[in-house]
Each structure stands twice: as C-alpha cells, then as structure tokens.
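Human:
Take a look at this sequence-structure pair and walk me through the tokens.
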Amino acid sequence: MILIIDDDVAVRTSLQLLLEQQGYATATADSSASALAVLQQQAPDLIILDLNFSIETSGDEGMLLLGQIRNLRPAIPVILITGWATIELAVKGMKLGANDFINKPWSNDHLLQSISTLLNLQEKRTEKLSRKKLDSLYNFQHIIGEDDAMLDILETIGRVAATDASVLIMGESGTGKELIAESVHQNSLRSNKPFVKVNLGGISTSLFDSEMFGHVRGAFTDARFDRTGRFEMANKGTIFLDEIGDLDPGSQVKLLRVLQDRTYEVLGSSRTKTVDVRVVCATNRPLEEMVSKGSFREDLLYRINLITIRLPALRERPGDIPLLVNFFLNNLREIYSRPALAISREAMKWLQQLPLPGNIRQLKNLVERSVLVSKKDYLEVGDLQSQLETSPRQKGNIDLPEVGSITLEELEIKMIRKAMEFHKGRITRVAKALGITRSALYRRLEKFNIPYDETAD
C-alpha cells in the first residue's frame, strides 16, 4: 500500500488514480494528524509526502512530519513532492531521510519509475546469490570477480537495472566504473537503445552546451553545420556521464536542469526539446567532501545518486586477481598467437600482494607488458617485477605515480592543479612553472574545467 499525504484533494485524487491504474493499493491523508493516525495503525510500503500544507509554503510542517515518520517508521521509503522553487528544501528533506524528490508538476513516468525502484530495493533477499546464479539471471559476461563485495554490487545492478533510476558509480581510477555503467545499460529495458559515453573532464566550459545539447548552423562563428548533442544521441537509451566531479559550477547548473526537467534547448534555437534518457554517472572524486567545500552542487548530487555503487579497490579483493590475470592471459594468447602463455603460482601470489594503486587498469598493463617483453611463455616473479617501477619516486617536489596507475591526461590535470595551488592562481607564474605559454595554459584550464581568476596575476 502507498500512502499519499497532501492537503490538496485534486493532487490526492490524481495520484490515487495514477497508482491504482498501475495496480498499487493506496491510502490518503490530508494533514499531519491524519497521516500519523494511518501510520499508527499500519505500515505502508511507500509514502508520497507533499512538503507544503494549506497556505503554509515554508515546508516546515512537511519537514516536521517527515521527522515524525522517520521516528515512527524508519524503514519506509519516502518520496517528497515539491516545486522547483523549493529544491533546496527538498535537499534538506533528503538529509533527513527522504529517498527521492519529484517536482510539481510531476512526470507520471518519472514518479512511477522512482516508486518502482524504491519498492524493488525494499524487497528482502531470501538468499545470497552465487556468481553462477547471477550469471544465469543477468548479463555480466564482461565483469570478472567473485569477491563478496563484487557479488553484492552485481546483485544491486541486477535489481535496479530494469528501472530508470539514476545511478552514481564511485571508485578509484581503474576499478572498472565504465564496465559497471555498461552492465546497468545491458541489463535494462533500454539495452537495444544507444549507450552514449561522455567524458565530462574532457569538455571545456565554452563547448559544454554544444557538446551536450547540440547547436544549429550559425549559432556561433564556427558553427557551419547543425550538431546533434549527446543527450539527443542517447534519447530512449542511457547516457554515461564519466568524471562528473570535474564539472565546473556553471555547467553543473545546466546539467541539473536537464536531469530535473528532462528538457533542454539546442544552442542557437529557442525551441525546447524533451529527452527520455537513463542517467548513469561516475567519479573518482569525493563528491560529499566537494559539496561541503562548495565546489559541487548539493542538489545535483541528490539528483544523480538515487542508487550509489561504491566499487572496491583491487587491493580490497585480492582473491579476484587470479581471475583477472587468467582473463588477460586468455586474451593475450589469442592476440599474440602464443597459446602456451601461463603464469607461475609464485608470480600469482606476488601479484596478490601488490598495492596496485591503478587497480585493474594497472594490473592489465603490467601483465601485458610482461608478456610482450619476456621471451618466455611461462611468466615468473622476475618477469613481472622487472616491469613494475618502484612507486612513488621523487624528482624534486614532484611525485611520479606508478606506470599504469594514471593516464597522461590525468597526470597533466594533477600537475596543473598543483601548480595553480602553489602559485595561488597567478597565471603567469603557473605557465612559467609548467613550461608553457599563458595562452596554452588558458586552453588547458578551459579543457579540464579547472577554475581560475582572469584578474589574478
């Protein structure tokens, strides 16, 4: 049963008809007192709560009721109904324990998707599923791992994939966030529609609108042709927003709008377009910490993380290293026509003891380099050890990361950020320290969405 709490009879009736058409049993309450009376008698499966009652628009009454609901029925999922003007209030409600917030006027599809997802996650697991059982239920053929933490992640993916819930994937560089995003798509009802990958860290602020929403011919000086934006490419499918933690504040606002309303405008056109898309985001940055520092919008974080998946580092699941190594070797046998490729037991144990800060990406690079350099088909500890550079090494005040643990672009971003911090954003000094011109530095700051003050010098 779903409990609808709203003082507006038209809203209660509309929601009740919508839900009952979908087969849900409902109950309604028009005040805090009547809602609490229902909750004293029975436990609904889910609650839809309006934040404002009668002429009161501050949301205080709704927020007080949310606190009472959490004390009385802490396990019941709650969806807040709010207007755009009270998004800040809705975020406050999420902090108090609400599970999602929906805008007025709401989209029926969006609301039903949220309800389906939250009810699905409430279902109790009767048994822990083995990897074999998970593979029989879902398509996880590209994900290697049998660690308990990974099995829990795969089960979560399987349960939420059929919904349209937004998913946030967090984890260190090289842990396989893109593979997890692809699995969400492959196991969804959108699997036969586009899966569009966007590296937000590689889109400059000035090109964000054109890249994401498209442009029409003549929208700006170099716009010689119409361009289709990434959201339009992903329509009816899934859009994967990688490195969302690198997005600058201005672009965060634009992204929030399309995620909130599912509408956008093509650059150079005044016509509003609607998009139907599943959103999956990923980052290796601490978004909660960034929110507290003001560098990432709190309302955007709550919009993208209805489901959060935290991928463990490879050092936290060493039992999966042999599975990964054997998978890499199987591929290398075919690629390099070396059917006898194998690895010693001692070498495998040695790999399991490594910290591997670059995680799966680093392990793959290490194994492949060792295969290419070694003249033997049987890899031993020495063959691998010779390809592993000591980490970290010092060169002046610069930490050189281990080979394979970071990409060249990531290293460049790291160096620019360090130089900007050391020289307090003074562009001339930063450019000189990095050995590039001011204009070259400006291009990189734009490309990597690194904030700067044009007056600082």
Notes: DSSP finds 20 helices and 18 strands in the chain. The CA atoms of residues 18 and 26 lie 10 Å apart.
